[in-house]
Structures are given as C-alpha cells and as structure tokens.
Amino acid sequence: MAAPEEATIMSGAMKMFDSCHLKPESLETGRIRNVLDETMAKLELSSLIPRVVDSLDMCADVLGPEITNSLIEHQKLSNELEQLLASSGDGNTGEAEEQRGRLCLLEQRLKCSVRNVLRLFLANPLLCQALKDEVWDRESPAEEFLKAFGEFRYFMLERLLTSPMEEEEKTRLLAGISLQMKKNTEAIAALQAELAAATRAREEEILKKETVIKDLQTSMRDLTAACLASTQQIRQEGEQQQEEMLRASRARRAGLQQHLQQLQVQLNALVLEHRASELALRKRKCRMETEIGNWIQKYNTDMAEKQAEYKEVRAAYAEEKAQLSLLMEKRELLLQEYSQIEEERRIHQEKKEQALKELTIMTLAATRIQAFWRGYLVRSLLRPKRKKKKKQGKGKGKGKGKGKKAKK
Question: With contact defined as beta carbons under 8 Å apart, do 44 and 80 qualify?
C-alpha cells in the first residue's frame, strides 16, 4: 500500500520541480543539450537498423544503392559476430585468445559500419524522418536503453538548468516528502493493525454465526423427524376415519335403498291412480279440440263473409272516391269562376263609386261655377249704378265747400 502512495508523492514533487523557474540557458548548456539530442536521434536510428535490415528487400528502392550496400555489409558483420559469439565457448586457451582478438576486430568493424550507416542516414533528413514516422517494433533492450537515455537527458538538463538555491529547496522538499512518507508508512501500519483486529473480530463473528447455523440445522433435522412422525400419525387417523365413513356410507346406502323401494311402490300406486284421471282429461281434451275446430270453422266462415262485405264496401268507397275527385275538380272550377265574378263585381262597384264621386264633384263644381257666374253678372250690372252715385256724391261735396267759404 505504501508503494502507490510513494509514487504519487514523487510524481507531485516532480511536477512542482517542473513548475519552478529555471535559470536561463547558457552557451555550454545549449551545446550539451544539442549533443544529447543528436545522441538520442542517433540511438533511435541505431535501434531501427536491425528492422530495416530485416525488411531490406522492400526498402531497397527507397534507401538507395549506397545505403543498401552499407546495410548488407552491416548485416554480414552482425552475422559473423553472432557466429563467433556462438562458438566462443568451445576450444582451448589459444583458440580463445584468437577468438577474442577476432571479436575485438569485428566489434571495431561493426562500430565503424554503424557510424557509416548513421552518417548516410543523417545525410538524408527526409529518409530519417520517414523511418521515424514508420511504425517499427523495436527490441525490448533497445527500447529500455532509449527510455533510460531519455531519463538521463531529462535529468542532465534539469541539473544544468537548476540554480543552487533551487537545489537546496529541492533537497528540503525531498526531506519533507521523506518525512511525510515515513508518517504515512506509520499510519498505514496502524491501519493494517486495525484491519487485522477487525478481520479477527469478523472471523470470530463468522464462527459464532456458523455455530448458530449448525444449531439451526440440527433443530431443522429434529423438526423434520417430528413432521414425519406427525404426518404418519395424521395418515393413520385419516385411514381410520375413512374406514368409519365408509361403514357409515354403506349403512346410509342401505337405508336409502329401502326408502327408494318404498317410494317406487308409492309411485306405482300413484300411476294407477292417475291413469283414470288422465283418461278423463284426454276425453275432455278431445271434446275441447272438437269445439275449437268448430269455432275455427265458424270463424273462417264469418271472416269470409266479412271479407266479401269488405270488398264490396271497398269497391263502393273507390267509386265514391272517384266521384268525390270529380266533384272536387268541378268545385275548383266553380271556385275559380266565383272568384272571377267576385273580382268583376268588386271592380264594377269601385268604378261605380268612382263615377258617383266624380259626378258629385262635378255637380258641386258646376254649382259653384254657376254661383260665381251669377255673382259676377250681378256685380257687373250693379257697377254702373255705383259709379253714378259716386259722381253725385262728389258734386254735393264741392257745393258744401263753397258755401262755407262764403260764410266766412
């Protein structure tokens, strides 16, 4: 439990260090970083050489003749080195010395071959990038070495870019982290002790429950045996009760059989008794059927007479209805003529009244005209007389005036 917590604390510390302000990069630091980057690139290409050699037939057109020849030479040297290493365990001391000499020579030649291949690869940046972009399965040792070198590069750059004060702060922080880890370890130990105690208590409780379960199982077995005994007893009692009920049923059946025989005798007596009444009822039924037949025949005769009478009445009704329709048509014509006559009478009466009114008006007008004319004639006859009287009156007036003046 302490290992994951320790890893978590260390990762947090590394993040804190990464977030610190590093000192500016100097010229020497830049050169060292460039050397490390170039070395990392060469190592990556070196790890890809075995895979490229294995797929040399497919990559020959892309690599070119010079690189292909160098890789073939490198493959030959690798094979010779493997064969030499495989046979190095056999032979005496002289041969071993000779093999070591040959091994050193092959190692030197292999190193030169690797440097030559890397030089050719680095001379073609596009090819290097294509090889890096291609998905290659590196061998596990090469992958681990690249990972270790990457960590070494990160550590070196961190050491180069970290100031002394930051180094001291880092040391203090690591000391605090160690102290915290120690405390956490103690707390984990205490928790583990508590867990062990809880586990023991849990086991004791489980043991108690197992004991209770065993007791319950024993009681269940006893209860099962008691149930079987009770079931057997109930079955025996049921069989006895069934036998008693069977005997009672047989006795009851005998009594019912005897009662049935008595009822059969009574039934036979009643049948004989009711046959006479049935015969009388049959005779009465025949008589009633005869009477009903007579009544039906009489009903049919009466209905035939009524039907004939109904047909006659219906024929008379049809004839009278035809006459009624003719009379109604004549009535309609007469009503039309009567309405025309009434209309003519009304118009004649209106004309007569109008003529009478006009005559009255004309008579009144003539009377007035005559009266007006008579008045006009009278006035025309009286007008000269009035003129004469006026003249006479004027002469008298003048004479009276002159007499008055003379008197004065």
Answer: no
Question: Which residue has 């032979």 as its token pair?
Answer: 91
Q: What is the pLDDT of residue 356?
A: 92
Where do the structural domains in the chain lie, given as residue ranges? 25-87+97-163
Cα–Cα dist 277/368, whole Å: 124
Structure tokens at 34: 């460039």
Region 226-233: mean pLDDT is 85
Burial call 55-74: b when 16+ CB within 10 Å, e when fewer: eeeebeeebeeebbebbeeb
**CA 172 to CA 17: how far, in whole Å?**
12
Give the DSSP per-residue string, 188-233: HHHHHHHHHHHHHHHHHHHHHHHHHHHHHHHHHHHHHHHHHHHHHH
Q: Which two three-digit tokens encode residue 9?
A: 């604390």
Q: 181 and 6 in contact (C-beta within 8 Å)?
A: yes
Give, in order, the Cα–Cα distances in Å from 382 to each of 9, 66, 136, 174, 396.
Answer: 164, 177, 167, 170, 22
pLDDT above 70 as % of the chain: 77
Q: What is the mean pLDDT of residues 318-343?
A: 91
Q: How far apart are CA 214 and CA 212, in angstroms?
A: 5
Tokens of 121: 């690869």
* CA nearest neighbour of 49 among 30, 73, 28, 25: 73
Q: Which residues contact 272 (CB under 8 A, 6 or more apart)?
A: none
Question: What's the token pair of residue 225?
Answer: 């045996």
When the pLDDT of each residue in the chain is averaged and rounded to a whole number, the result is 78
Q: Computed from CA positions of residues 317, 318, 321, 326, in that sequence, does the dihedral angle turn out positive or negative?
A: negative
> CA distances (Å), 202 to each of 209, 211, 212, in order?
10, 14, 15
Q: CA of 130: how far to CAs of 48, 59, 124, 125, 126, in Å?
A: 12, 11, 10, 9, 6
* DSSP secondary structure code for residue 89 in this structure: T
Q: How confident is the model at residue 354 (pLDDT cuts 50, 70, 90)?
A: very high
Nearest to 45 by CA among 63, 30, 27: 63
Q: Rounded to whole angstroms, how far apart are CA atoms 84 and 98? A: 11
Asked if residue 45 lies in contact with residue 121, where contact means CB atoms within 8 angstroms, the answer is yes
